[in-house]
Design goal:
The protein is mostly helical. It has five helices and no strands. The protein has helices at residues 6-35, 39-83, 98-116, 122-145, 150-175. 12% of the residues are buried.
């Protein structure tokens, strides 16, 4: 067999190295275009959209409306569960103070139960009357706080919540729950 001269083998290895670098550069360039959005890909997408949307849009519109309704219904159920009221009454307790208004309504129902309780005393009736007036003031305060700047509204809601906490605990004590 014949052997190649060192210059020939060196030239071949340089060519091979150059060929490898060129292939790597080409692969990197094709990866760059495959992952990104090129002007040609954008034009093709617009062409496809011009054909597909008018054809499929009318068929998908009712599904989109139904999906939006389902999402809204699920959100309403979540909000109602969060503030502790039935979904039908959710609109009555809207706004930033909705949760407080729901708590006030629950306390008012508790006062009604206290008045109807068989073991009610004159002291309980007096408490119920005083607490009813307090609840009316708290309701007015929550509604007035809706129009305040957020920092003042949050401070007002915090004060209302603490007042309501005390009233609820006393109501529960008088009902014999706590």
């Amino acid at each position: 067999m014949f052997s190649e001269s060192p210059e020939v083998s060196s030239a071949k290895s340089k060519k091979a190295a150059k060929k490898d670098r060129k292939a790597a550069k080409k692969a990197a360039k094709s990866d760059e275009h495959d992952s990104g959005l090129t002007p040609q890909k954008a034009k093709n997408a617009v062409k496809v959209a011009k054909i597909v949307i008018p054809a499929v849009g009318p068929a998908l519109a009712p599904l989109a409306v139904r999906a939006a309704g389902t999402v809204r219904e699920a959100y309403d159920r979540y909000q109602a569960r969060k503030i502790g009221v039935p979904v039908e009454q959710l609109s009555e307790y809207s706004g930033h103070g909705g949760g407080l208004l729901a708590r006030i309504a629950g306390a008012a129902d508790g006062l009604t139960e206290l008045r109807r309780a068989p073991q009610v005393t004159n002291d309980d009736v007096s408490f119920a009357q005083h607490a009813q007036g307090t609840l009316e003031q708290l309701t007015a305060s929550v509604r007035a706080a809706e129009h305040m700047p957020s920092t003042r509204r949050k401070a007002a809601h915090k004060a209302i919540a603490s007042e309501l906490d005390g009233l609820e605990s006393e109501l529960l004590r008088r009902l014999g729950v706590a």
